[in-house]
Amino acid sequence: MRKSTFILPVIVVLLVVALSSVFIVDEREKALVLQFGQIKRVKEDPGLSFKIPLIQEVVRYDDRILSLDTQTTEVTPSDDRRLVVDAFARYRIADVVRFRQAVGTGGLMVAEDRLEGILNAQVRAVLGSDGVTSNTILSSDRSALMARITASTQVLAAPLGLEVVDVRLKQTQLPEQNLAATFDRMRAEREREATDERARGEEAAQRVRAQADRTVVELVSAARKEAEITRGEADAQRNNVFAEAFGKDPEFFEFYRSLNAYVKALKGNNSSMVLSPDSEFFNYLKSPAGAAQPSPAPATE
Fold first, then answer.
1. Domain boundary assignment for the chain
2. What SS3 state is found at 300?
3. DSSP E strands: which ranges in 151-249?
4. Which of 79, 97, 147, 168 could join 133 in a cystine, given CB atoms 3.0 to 4.6 angstroms apart?
């Protein structure tokens, strides 16, 4: 009875010691075996491993790609238009030994603070370099700028044992105090462009109207020319008809002309005419036969 009472605690202690000497590394992590704070072994492959119980300890680090969202920072491109930039990075712990030596017991919190400082500094350095304007940052050329930021951040983050996979500019906008002035300038530019467009449209309309007026004048002139030619030909034909009629019967032609003169002169209005009774105008009115009376011969002495 006394022997079993002594053996049971020993078995329990041995079991606890055996369990404390075994640890399992997941495929999503890496592990360091520390002895009194010193690195004794690196365990990067997943699976079962052993350590000295009570003397050695295991520190685990995430081996997956991690994300870091930085605080917004102001940058001043070469055109002196300030911008507020919000960036984020994708990174992973590439060297756990160097990482442990760089951050100590602070772990990811200390590492991300340092990485954020590096990233913000590189964002300001690249976006504020010569030749980089706000239009460049806001255009499709920003991909080349992000590649430059990624490359420079990778070099500076390597001593921390970190591998920067990618850096992206999540948001780029103007500071609040500059928005109103920027909107006013944009509005003025759009109004100027609209005025220019209206002026060009009015100029084009004037050209179209001038061309149309010119075409109208040319068409009217051509029509009048043709009308005058037609009228002249008709008058010539009429005169030929009258000449032929006069040549065939001069007396009838004289009678016809007199009738036309009566129609035009005697319209029944209140107008008055003073003529001599012996005027040739009344030859056909005074003749009972409707024939013209010869004019009286002048008296001779």
1. 2-62, 66-174, 249-286
2. coil
3. 162-173
4. 79
The beta strands (E) that lie in 66-161 are given as 66-69, 73-75, 83-93
> Could you give the count of Cα atoms lying within 13 Å of 85 in the half-sphere of its Cβ?
29
Beta bridge partners of 93: 162
Place of tokens 């590649």: 147
Mean pLDDT, consecutive 10-residue segments, the chain of 301 residues? 64 67 84 86 84 83 90 82 86 91 89 93 88 82 89 93 91 70 79 91 91 91 91 87 75 73 67 64 57 47 37
The answer to whether 68 and 61 have CB atoms below 8 angstroms apart is no
298: helix, strand or coil: coil
Neighbouring-strand partners of residue 163? 92
DSSP H or E stretch at residue 49 = strand 47-50
- Residue of 229, 108, 221 whose CA lies nearest to 161: 108
Is the pTM above the cut of 0.70? no
Q: List CB contacts of 29: < 8 A, sequence separation 6 or more.
A: 60, 61, 62, 63
> Which residues are within 8 A (CB) of 175 and not within 5 positions of it... i.e. 6 or more apart?
74, 82, 83, 84
Architecture of domain 66-174: 2-Layer Sandwich (3.30)
Q: What is the pLDDT of residue 299?
A: 42
d(CA 171, CA 185): 22
Q: Is 297 left (phi over 0), alpha (psi -120 to 50) or beta?
A: beta
Please give the radius of gyration of the chain, using alpha carbons only, rounded to the nearest integer.
Answer: 58
